[in-house]
Specification:
With 361 residues, the protein is of the alpha/beta class. The protein contains 11 helices and 11 strands.
Length: 361
């Protein structure tokens, strides 16, 4: 990325501009190859949050032209960017449920499509960002195709961790972020099905084939493309997923040895993402556990109200019937070392035991 931090405008015809354009398009091709689509279907954005907003805004604007309004179907376990953008631009949001493992209800999606003729789009995440549950995208895509409704898939949590074939997924739109797979922050992509035309969310120029205005972030795109190229070969992606899965299984086995621990999400490893685990800790709130782990050199995340910039517990865990105040998530990435995994496994029991002793006085 360093070579391109001072990149020229890729829209210029001088030599420097053409070099920047070549780097940008090479990165686009690498992202497209990783995600199973053509380079022309890749629109670079500032990240999955923008991509989700652009997909929701654009699809609803397109679908509402005839009727003046369009509704959205979205499950309760979708990311906040999906839920909030839908609430902003849809005439109404038909919320569907999920089971206690975080898997959405296909039957409820089907019922929503049958009962509401004004639905303009359906959101279905590829995998849940908190408990790792893989979602029945193919079944939802079949329902949407039969109903003539656009389908947006939030693949931010899954991209770079499991194989994705956008062109054969049945999705019309898909959102991803580079940083979720080890790339730079501040760059992502919206994949747009071939032939689909939606109005741009960000105006002010004809960049990205008039689908997203503003000067392109060449350096970040190059970083994104480099990561995508590292993972594009099926063997390389499988090796990365296997390494992550082995580390997570070591964490799961270590945490399972602690009394009062409940694992959230699908029980089978085939039904969940390979790189994260979400657990409930009986008898103590998550926040003190996070502080104790942090003091031991382990960074984790909680679904409790104090762990983020919002003041509300995780709606995902609430929809699953889980106590967010006593849950936390551990994940691994490309840079996670086995020694760091062992540190987490050894620190967790002592932190929880110490907090329980304090509680019992």
């Amino acid at each position: 990325m360093l070579e391109w931090l001072g990149a020229a405008d890729p829209g210029r015809v001088h030599t420097e501009g053409r070099m920047a354009r070549a780097a940008l398009e090479e990165a686009r091709g690498a992202v497209a190859a990783l995600l199973g689509t053509r380079p022309r279907q890749v629109v670079f954005t500032s990240g999955a949050t923008e991509s989700i907003n652009a997909a929701t805004f654009g699809a609803l604007r397109e679908e509402a032209r005839g009727s003046g309004s369009a509704a959205v179907v979205a499950s309760a376990v979708e990311h906040s960017a999906v839920r909030e953008s839908s609430a902003r631009w849809a005439s109404r949001v038909l919320e569907t449920g999920a089971d206690d493992s975080g898997v959405i209800s296909v039957d409820e999606v089907a019922e929503a499509l049958r009962s509401a003729p004004d639905v303009g789009m359906v959101h279905c995440q590829l995998a849940n960002h908190e408990v790792g549950a893989m979602q029945p995208v193919a079944e939802v895509a079949e329902l949407c195709r039969a109903a003539g409704v656009l389908l947006h898939v939030d693949a931010a949590a899954a991209a770079g961790h499991v194989p994705i074939d956008f062109d054969h997924s049945g999705a019309d739109l898909m959102s991803v972020s580079a940083h979720k797979m080890g790339g730079p922050a501040g760059i992502g992509a919206l994949l747009v099905r071939r032939g689909l035309r939606i109005p741009p969310f960000i105006l002010g120029g004809a960049q990205e084939r008039a689908r997203r205005g503003g000067l392109e972030n060449v350096a970040a795109a190059v970083g994104f493309g480099t990561v995508a190229a590292q993972l594009a070969a099926p063997a390389d992606l499988a090796a990365e997923a296997s390494r992550a899965a082995n580390q997570i299984e070591r964490i799961r086995s270590g945490l399972a040895a602690v009394a009062g621990i409940t694992f959230y999400g699908p029980a089978s490893s085939a039904g969940r993402l390979p790189h994260l685990v979400c657990v409930g800790v009986d008898g103590v709130e998550a926040e003190p556990v996070l502080i104790g782990l942090d003091r031991a050199g382990v960074a984790a995340h909680s679904g409790s109200s104090c762990s983020s910039e919002t003041l509300e517990p995780s709606p995902v865990l609430q929809a699953m019937g889980v106590d967010a105040e006593r849950s936390l998530r551990l994940s691994v990435g490309w840079s996670t070392l086995d020694d760091e995994v062992e540190l987490a496994v050894s620190a967790f029991p002592s932190v929880v035991d110490g907090l329980r002793r304090l509680r019992d006085g």
